[in-house]
Amino acid sequence: MESKNNSSRREFMLKSGALLGAGLLSSPLSAFSFDSKKSWTVGEIMDTFISQVPNAPFERTVDTIKVGSRETVVTGVVTTMFTTMEIIHKAIELKANLIIPHEPTFFSGQDDTDYLQEDPVFRAKYDLMEKNGITLWRNHDYVHRMQDDGVRVGVVGDLGWNEYYTPGSRILNIPKTNLRSLINHIKTKLGVPAMRYVGDLNQTCSKVLLLPGAVGGRLQITQIMEHRPDVLVCGESNEWETPEYVRAANEIGMKLSMIEIGHSASEEGGSEFVKNWLTQNMPGLPVYHIPSGNSLQVF
């Protein structure tokens, strides 16, 4: 049973988050001093983050604890895209007992584990965290649904495009370049060795439609139809959907290109965003962002 103090604290966080979303409070921190707090539980960190998301908490969400407990007193935090075995070992070395990944840990969108209970791969990951007292809280839906999508904000920063970004917009008007140079820029900034594209490498690009991750072909195509960008920069897409649309557009004479970064690299900036948020809102708490990299290699 939750204590009255914890219940009151959570109620405050949710109310202050609503005021923040309405623009009536510069920050919930200004109404309650967190600076003097010596320690944080997992649940308090979760509630504080969720309090700053409009219309949260959500009735249906994948952002739940997969390993561990809300009551765990946090000694340090690691943010990342994927909770690999390497990430878990690094968290143990850093004495960080909370891992916050953006994507699933147990190989499916909902982190279903009923069919994996006797599998040695699942058991190795789960048991390593449990043995070392690590709690894992996935933060996917909430960071995407902040006042301004935290993943997009992080990726824009990683790409060095802050000056061209309008908060809340998927469109960026960058200085004119060609597709070849734009691909090289993204490869360099995000540390991606290679990426796939559709279009003419000499095409002039300025108006960018930025859709990190895997938002689906229908949304990618309808956003192209609405905004008519020079280039779509996305995480990934089914080959029979947006790539074929962009190829057909070129075949009828339209100037349209597409760059597919890869899911992991296209959203890793969101985990950096979460790290920065934690540093700002939980002063003194050790927080580390460790990129997980891509499991798929280029030969």
Automatic annotation (TrEMBL):
<dbReference type="GO" id="GO:0016787">
    <property type="term" value="F:hydrolase activity"/>
</dbReference>
<feature type="binding site">
    <location>
        <position position="267"/>
    </location>
    <ligand>
        <name>a divalent metal cation</name>
    </ligand>
</feature>
<feature type="binding site">
    <location>
        <position position="263"/>
    </location>
    <ligand>
        <name>a divalent metal cation</name>
    </ligand>
</feature>
<dbReference type="InterPro" id="IPR036069">
    <property type="entry name" value="DUF34/NIF3_sf"/>
</dbReference>
<dbReference type="GO" id="GO:0046872">
    <property type="term" value="F:metal ion binding"/>
</dbReference>
<dbReference type="Pfam" id="PF01784">
    <property type="entry name" value="DUF34_NIF3"/>
</dbReference>
<dbReference type="InterPro" id="IPR002678">
    <property type="entry name" value="DUF34/NIF3"/>
</dbReference>
<keyword id="KW-0378">Hydrolase</keyword>
<dbReference type="InterPro" id="IPR006311">
    <property type="entry name" value="TAT_signal"/>
</dbReference>
<keyword id="KW-0479">Metal-binding</keyword>
<protein>
    <submittedName>
        <fullName>Putative NIF3 family GTP cyclohydrolase 1 type 2</fullName>
    </submittedName>
</protein>
<dbReference type="GO" id="GO:0005737">
    <property type="term" value="C:cytoplasm"/>
</dbReference>
<comment type="similarity">
    <text>Belongs to the GTP cyclohydrolase I type 2/NIF3 family.</text>
</comment>
<keyword id="KW-0732">Signal</keyword>
<feature type="signal peptide">
    <location>
        <begin position="1"/>
        <end position="31"/>
    </location>
</feature>
<feature type="binding site">
    <location>
        <position position="102"/>
    </location>
    <ligand>
        <name>a divalent metal cation</name>
    </ligand>
</feature>
